[in-house]
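hey so i finally got around to running the thing on that chain from the lab meeting. sorry it took forever, my laptop kept dying and i had to restart like 3 times. anyway pasting the input first so we r on the same page abt which one it is
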Amino acid sequence: MKQAENFIIKKRLTGLSAVAAVATLGFASGVCAVENLEKDSLKFGFIKLTDMAPLAVAYEKGYFEDEGLSVQLEAQANWKVLLDRVIDGELDGAHMLAGQPLGATIGFGTKADVITAFSMDLNGNAITVSNDVWKQMKEKIPVKDGKPVHPIKADALKPVVEKYKSAGKPFNMAMVFPVSTHNYELRYWLAAGGIKPGFYAPPEDTSGQIDAEAMLS
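ok and heres what got predicted. didnt touch it at all, straight out
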């Protein structure tokens, strides 16, 4: 098996994105024929998650070579490092969170024009809780044929959160990045169940925690 530690494709300020998206290819003038590629040796960044699988498959199956491209796949430490390296030109493109190109374009963090070339993944995210919290939630979840009825609503979590609040304990939940779909989906799910998730604010700003019933970070 090839060493898939480096993966490439890019054009200065162009990146891959979506819940997992593919790096943009730099073309000399719009969409050109393979023989007119601006650059045929590319490096793509990725985070070690299953939604980067299309890149790994294309690498292993030789699809990049079929298009006249020499591609290197390179794992990145975290989402911020990945985005900064695409913007700085160290990577030709990358598998990104869907919100990162949007955030960069409007100046959330480092401002840069980042283009989404291809959406690699749609849905597939999951909200998980600890075994103890799940045990308490199950009492409020309807069951059919011996299994919990899906989708499971945050209504079942609300009594647990209220119990934490009564005991003076924060109910902490985590997400990967402020502009990630994970963050938005988790907040929407909580709010739909009547649980106030607060709003995102920088670490030094606690205003986002005012009246929040679930602490997201």
